[in-house]
Amino acid sequence: MTNPATHSLSEFQIAMRTFRKNRLAMLCVMILGALYFSAIFAGFLSPYSFKSERREHSYAPPTRIHFVDESGEFGWPFVYGIKLSFDEYYKRIYQEDRSVKYPVQLFNHGDEYKFLGLVPMNIHLWGVEEGGAVYLLGADNRGRDLLSRILWGGRVSLSIGLIGVAISFSIGLIFGGISGYYGGWIDNVLMRVAEMVMMVPGFYLLLALRAAVPPEFSSVQVYIAIVVILSFIGWAGLARIIRGMCLSLREREFVLAAKSIGLSDFSIIIRHILPHTLSYSIFAVMLSIPGYILGESALSLLGLGIEDPYSSWGLLLADAMSIVKIRFYPWILIPAFFIFLTIISFNVIGDALRDALDPMMKAEGQRS
Amino acid sequence: MILELKNITKTYPLKSGFGTKTGKVVRAVNNVSLGVEKGESISLVGESGCGKTTLARVIMQLIRPDGGNVLYDGKKVDRTNIATYRKDVQMVFQDPYSSLDPRYTIRRVIDEGMALDKTRFKTQQEREMRIQKMLGAVQLKQDMLGRYPHEFSGGERQRIAIARALVLNPTLLILDEAVSSLDVLVQEEILKLLTSLQKDFNLTYVFISHNLKVVKRISRRVAVMYKGKIVELAKTEDIFNNPLHSYTRDLLSAAVDYKSVIRDMEIRIPDGAQLEDKGGGHWVMPE
């Protein structure tokens, strides 16, 4: 504390200061910030829409962007046209067609999309004019730009973690809070329910619940169903931990003091008990988001999640299940890198938060 | 009589290693009856685990007794009048480090009780005035209000806890080991404060302690508790000068020199024994 006379910091604020000093964690915060930013503005940042396909460019390799033209002059970046030919095994061979040049355009007009899902727009941050094609990270089997699909897929993959965690933590906190505060038979009933959910192996429960979703659901409905399914599996573990904390917190004297002042049970749980599980919950949230992202990826990988033409990172990876494709079109593995980056970031942030919040948790008697 | 305890019993079931009930129980408080006069200060003393704190929590209605009643102003305290009872009876807890919510500023700690009572403290201004007054009463500075409990010493925290208890203008204050965790000098300060507060706010104290010196300073009557029962109840000077129960004598001599007590023999309390009047308000449990 620099100046205690003018400033007063709560223990939580002190913990956040420690967190900000962790360079690696701050880097991960920035990475995640960039990923979420790109997902939110996917339509604008990507040169194409997630469903605009050009079959003649199936598995086109990453397009090179040139800065130096034939005469050796350095100038505005451009791409060449793509020339398709076949070798003797009818394997597609893509070559640069040096006869046509397409300069990279900023704020060009391209595929229609809805800005932030609301405003119809066709301006993209960058792209090439009609006729040319730019695939910065290559194209998939239907000739769709992989970069665009990754950015659009990030919307699904990144949001599913947040929404899933929000749902399952609300359930977990309420269940755990009530169970721990009241104890007795309420505790017994609620915890047996939680154990029943935990008892079933997660992945099979996931598949079973997914099978229960009607096949005529639209893509958005499937997405919502997946979020609900994932959070239905995830809440039980948290509820048990929160319940354990509440059991010890309700004996703390400030809880008794609140009770003797005349606060209702509900107010005590909301104001004095659950906030003290927050330090744990925050990093538990961070460490459990990857589970949701992986869960969605696993479902989509198996073809049970998001369906074509919509995009998610897991779905994009489903294409990479064949070793032959990886051998010839290695760029289809790039979505895995994004999953990896996201999960590593969440884990690093989670660990850093745990370190920063640890003194607080010790002070609150949650760890010793 | 402002507060009357009638045959309070509180038992806890003993559990085996597997968490199943064994059928045995611990009698934390066993058939205790006690009357508290308005304006007096009465102390409950006894060794750790004798049921003092359990009794305090039963009085506070924080735990429900298995048997017996708590009467306030002659009326039985139950669900219907618990809200008014809570305004009249407040408690200061043992550990000043855990009795204040670490996430609350001092202002919020003190304000919380008033915020519930909309009829008495209508406006924000009224509440702020009351907070200022309480802060003055416990001799804390104004600039402390925006700070968090972890920035204060034990003595300061205990003053804050007292301010929180007093803000609702109670008539009865239960002090559960309120000075035990403080060092001797701070103890002295808090005791002085409590004595002057008693005069200023016309308070009745139920003072719970294991420290006989503190008890001697603050209380007019003393009840000695042993194994969940009151074994002796008398005026303070009678307890100190003329202890009648052998446990009281042990306790007093232990206060001077703990080696002087030879406790191979357990003091037995006969079943169904009642306090006997020895005259002059001196009650003793027969041995």
The assigned structural class of chain B equals: alpha/beta
Query: Do you know the CATH topology of chain B?
Result: Rossmann fold
Tertiary shape of chain A: elongated
Main-sheet strand order of chain A equals 1-2-3
Distance N terminus to C terminus of chain A?
25 Å
Mean pLDDT of chain B: 85
Biggest sheet of chain A: strands, sense, closure? Answer: 3 strands, antiparallel
| Helix percent band of chain B | 25-40%
Can you tell me the residue ranges of chain A where pLDDT is under 50 for at least 5 consecutive residues?
A: 1-6
- Decide which structural class fits the backbone of chain A: alpha+beta
- Highest CATH level, the class of chain B: Alpha Beta
Structurally, the number of domains of chain B stands at 1
Please count the helical segments of chain B: 9
Order of helices and strands of chain B: EEEHEEHEHHHEHEHEEHHEE
CATH homologous superfamily of the largest domain in chain A, by name? MetI-like
Oligomer: heterodimer
* Low-pLDDT ranges of chain B: none
